[in-house]
Amino acid sequence: MSQQPPHATFAEGKIGQYLLNRLDEAAQYSQPGAGVTRLFCSTEHRQVLPLIEQWMTRAGLTPELDAAGNLVGRCPKALSGEPTLIMGSHQDSVVEGGKYDGMLGIAVPLVALETLRHAGVTLPYGVEVVAFGDEEGVRFPTTLVGSRALAGTTESQQLEARDKQGISLREALRSFGVEPDGIPALARDPANTLGFVEVHIEQGPRLEQRDHAVGIVTSLTGIERHQVTVSGKAGHAGTTPMPGRHDALVGASDMVLAVDRVLQATEGLVGVVGQLDVHPNAVNVIPASVTFTIELRSPQSETRQQGHETIRAALHEVAERRGLTLSMDNTYRADGAHCAEWIMRGLEQACATLEQPTERMFSGAGHDGLAMQDVTDIGMLFVRCKEGLSHHPDEHISADDGEVAVRVMMEFLQQLDPSRCR
What we know:
single chain; 2 domains; Allantoate amidohydrolase; hydrolase; manganese
């Protein structure tokens, strides 16, 4: 692990590289292969925790692993129950993702707090930085497990979700060393929570096109996910006549194209068929069943609902025409979230103090704020990423932009008046 940094680390022009070095170190805790693969309650998740604990300790926070698999760092004021601002992001990644998605939002506030601590600055309110265990929803067919726990909106059926090995989320948490029965007690008190602020790479090209280091997020997209199962009839690939076959994969392929047609024709709606599993998945057997996922995104719930209904009708038409059976189950839904005006203004003022140009912009991605909006005001600072690339091994930010993000957060924290929140 990194040694205690020298004082020169906190000089202007040095903090950005310090931040990137941290992110490089965290990226080592990954499954073998390209990019970063670090799933919820995995060995890699367990291995990265001591590193983040070290970051938290240097920032003057006391780390604790909670019942939902979140690593939470609190300052003395937060531990004593004073009004608290929550910051943070997620430690988990997609498969073969990048080193900045999620982890940047953990590292930036901790470097900001460490730098303020080095300068002798004491904030007049509590701060809490959370490394959420799960946001991507890759291992289990559920997501925002950690932030829903803090918001007090975890549902019991979430804990029964199972990964591809048949392990339930409840079992995985217990194997990880925490007790999921304690999740309800994690809910934060809205009256004592000042807000939730997250730093994240933009995951799009707008900041790069504007030549801006950072941007102020106005709202987060709404998301829904569905699992579709198409059932047909298996048979010998060489002896079953082509006419009259009930090939689940051929039908599912038709359905995937139908989903794409709806998405292409519906303004304000985007989506993807991201996973597809074939059974029995043998070279000489007609596929008996196919399971695939559909994800729909739009800031407008009415648009998502319309798209969902149109897609459902199209899939049933394919199933009927091809003699297949179909089930379509909703596995996740989160409405869009609007960022609080006072947080947006505070981030804008911090940018202005640093003479950093910025503008307000919408996020087409979902984030932990979708859950945290149920307990407190939310806000988000975007950081420019090269070519707008994300969920990819080549995602990248510069040291200069990383330093801007840290210094914006430092200004925001110092200018925040807890009596004027909301």
